[in-house]
Structure formats: C-alpha cells, structure tokens
C-alpha cells in the first residue's frame, strides 16, 4: 500500500468537522422526522424535536467526531490513506457505544465501524480511485470531437 504523501493537502479539522457535522445533523433531522411519523403519540409535528430530537444531535456529534478525528489523523501523519478513515470511524463508533452507556459496546462499535470504513476506503484505493479533477473526469466521460486531418488557414 503506497502512501500518497506527495499529493497531501492539509485540512482544517475544525472546518471539516463543522461541515460534516451539519450534514449529519440534517440526516439526523430526517431520521427523527421518520421516527416521529411512525410512532403513536399526542405531541403533533413538533415531536421530531421534543420526543426524538436527540437523534439529530447524536447524528451531528457522530459526523463531527468522525470528520475531526479523520482530519486530525491525516494532518498529523501527513498522508491520506484508509487508516485515517478507520480511526475516525472508530472514534464515532466509540461515541455510539458511550451513548448506550456500555464500554463493551463502545469498544465493539469502534472495531466494527473502524474495520468497515477502513475496508471501504482501502477498496476505493485498490479500484484505482484517483484525485482527478472534475474537468478531467468530464473529458474522459464524454466523446471528444475528432481533430481535422488538414487544418486550413483562412486568408
């Protein structure tokens, strides 16, 4: 497994964590809304905040923990490889176990999520995933017009 330290770019851990935490919070709001819609209660539409609103914060915390740990690990090691994602997922899984108030569950969640994310990242690198720009991917995808055989100059 070759490291790509020559193409490493430093990430702002706080900014990355805030962005991913916000995105995960939006997913948490969606999950909370579905939980509220499927349960039987008398709280009305605001139940997604009052009854199942903890889901929103939990999703946001897990996303931010993952992103912060991944970015910090990458910045510390000066490399971008699957180990960073595995450590970030392990931290997020540990947080999930702590929410369940169980150290064995925290350690197990850390191992399972870390292994899953590390495998996912590693398989992406095995498949030849490159950091090609959007324009390069577009050029490869779309058919290019043929170049003229003889170029004529207008007088």
Description:
By secondary structure, this protein is an all-alpha fold. Helix content is 67%, strand content 0%. Mean pLDDT is 85; it is low at 1-5. It has one domain.
Short structural description:
The protein has 155 residues and is mainly alpha-helical. It has one domain (10-127).
Q: In what range is the share of β-strand residues?
A: under 5%
Structural class: mainly alpha
Largest β-sheet summary: none
Instruction: Provide the domain count.
Output: 1
Q: Extract low-pLDDT stretches.
A: 1-5
Along the chain, the helix and strand elements come as HHHHHH
Give helix % range. Answer: 55-70%
Provide the residue-averaged pLDDT: 85
Radius of gyration: 22 Å
Alpha plus pi helix count: 6
Terminal residue distance: 58 Å
Q: What are its keywords?
A:
single chain; 155 residues; mainly alpha; extended; disordered N terminus
Topology:
Layout: H1 13-38, H2 47-50, H3 54-77, H4 82-99, H5 103-126, H6 134-141
């Amino acid at each position: 497994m070759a490291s790509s330290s020559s193409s490493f770019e430093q990430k702002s851990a706080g900014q990355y964590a805030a962005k991913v935490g916000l995105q995960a919070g939006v997913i948490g709001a969606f999950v909370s809304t579905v939980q509220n819609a499927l349960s039987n209660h008398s709280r009305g539409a605001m139940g997604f905040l009052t009854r199942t609103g903890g889901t929103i914060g939990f999703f946001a915390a897990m996303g931010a923990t993952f992103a912060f740990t991944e970015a910090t690990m990458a910045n510390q090691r000066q490399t971008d490889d699957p180990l960073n994602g595995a450590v970030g997922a392990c931290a997020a899984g540990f947080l999930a176990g702590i929410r369940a108030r169980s150290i064995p569950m925290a350690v197990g969640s850390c191992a399972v999520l870390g292994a899953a994310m590390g495998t996912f990242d590693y398989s992406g690198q095995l498949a030849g995933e490159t950091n090609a720009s959007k324009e390069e991917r577009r050029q490869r995808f779309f058919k290019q017009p043929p170049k003229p055989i003889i170029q004529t100059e207008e007088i």
